[in-house]
Sequence to fold (522 residues):
Amino acid sequence: MSASASPAVTTIEIQLKDGKVSPNGDRVDLNQGDQFVLDITSDRDDEVHVHGFDKGIEVSAGQHVRVPMTADRTGRFEVESHHPELLIVVLQIR
Amino acid sequence: MILPLHGLGSRQDLPLPFELVLLGAALALLLSFGALVLAWRRPRFTAQAGLALPGLTRMVDAPVTRALARLLALALYGWMALALWFGQDRVTNPVFGFVFVWLWVGLVPVSLLFGSIWRLTNPLRTLARLVLAPRGPLRPLSEAAWQRVGITPGVVTLLGFAWLELVQPGNNTLPVLRWWAVAWFVGAVGGSLIFGERWVSAFDPFEVFAERIATLSPWQRVDGVLHLVNPLRHACTAPVPRGTAAVTATLLGITAYDSFTNTTVWVGWVQTSTLPRTLWGTLGLVGMTVLVGGAFALAARATAAGWTNRLAASLVPIVVGYNFAHYLSLLVLEGQRTAILASDPLGLGWNVFGTAELGVNTGIFDYPQPVAIIQLCAIVLGHLLGVLIAHDRSLVALNGRRVIVGQLPMLMLMVGYTVAGLVLLFSP
Fold:
């Protein structure tokens, strides 16, 4: 899966490390229709869940995964990890 | 917000745009000082008055109407109790939406529109009456004792419910909710068995909340007859039981804490700390309530001694405006979802009310700008009504002394609340 050729692709780098998450609840502003990529590196088995899109991304310890998505709906969407439950970023799509 | 319906993939409102925060703050200031300088010089709302409605009173007081209303309410709670005790422990169980959206959020518009309907139909009271029918209360309280109790137990139970909604881990699971439901039920009905039916109005957090909001409704009983009244007059002339200020401050504090948990500051603190989340949550909830209540107590004391409870009426519109802004989308979306799920309380594939196959209309998300403006209007209007009530009550409290300067503490408090509320909705 490669990132789209569109110039406006936002990459959100997510690190799941030592039982914590980075970013730690930051806001990410996007416009409706934008492409974005969740670039996830993890040192543990976990699931990254994107609310509102009902998307669950399983990651295993030591894995690095890039998930392209399209901001096709407006609103505020929390992206969080499950083990432990922590808020990673909040997508604000206008 | 730790929404119990998290797992449904809930989509939330965008935060208020910053320009609207500034606009709201400016309007709040302008309206406050405008009211101070231009509004009436003598108190207007000292007596109860309005349009008498004897026909409506007869209809509402008819035993048949009352029995029917209570039966319907009891049936609704009973239906959801089925879901709670015999339903599936999944996020598709309607009881979660029932408790956290229909009851907790819904009681605000219901009480605003229909007055004391919650008290009339409260199933806890219906059940308390049944339990008390044979022998009456074991240790009935005197009128003087009830005056001392007022609604102060409501502060504890409101905080308890808020803790369940915002802090309790696993509040989207049936076992947790069952324990709390039992505690609520036993506390209310058990307490009634001991002290009398009046205990329900002191203890039940939903009724305590609803009754405060109902003081802003246009329906007021004057000498037993329902009257159509000016809501401001209603708020100024409604009875003020002991604990009113504490309860109103708690209501504001709860919503403030709820909003605060959405900020990056809070999330950062909690997530990088080694302290357990539950501890953070408890401290935050109690702390926010103490902050809000403490500020109010200071402002009330600075206005006139002994007026804390009576001035609390001015906070009710602010509670309503802020709750409306904060929970509007939730009510519209999860309210619909609960209505859909209510057709199948046990998760067996039923469709009792014919709603099980419907989808939630998420149209509200297509209009973020109008929603933001509506939220702003709710807050500014709540602020304006609060200022007018504070103005009238302060005129009585100040009794001609230092009329302009004496109103400044309350005014500054309310501007402070409104600006803080706007900033929280901007969710930095």
User: Anything to note?
Assistant: Residues 1-9 of chain B have pLDDT under 50 and may be disordered. The longest strand of chain B covers residues 219-222.
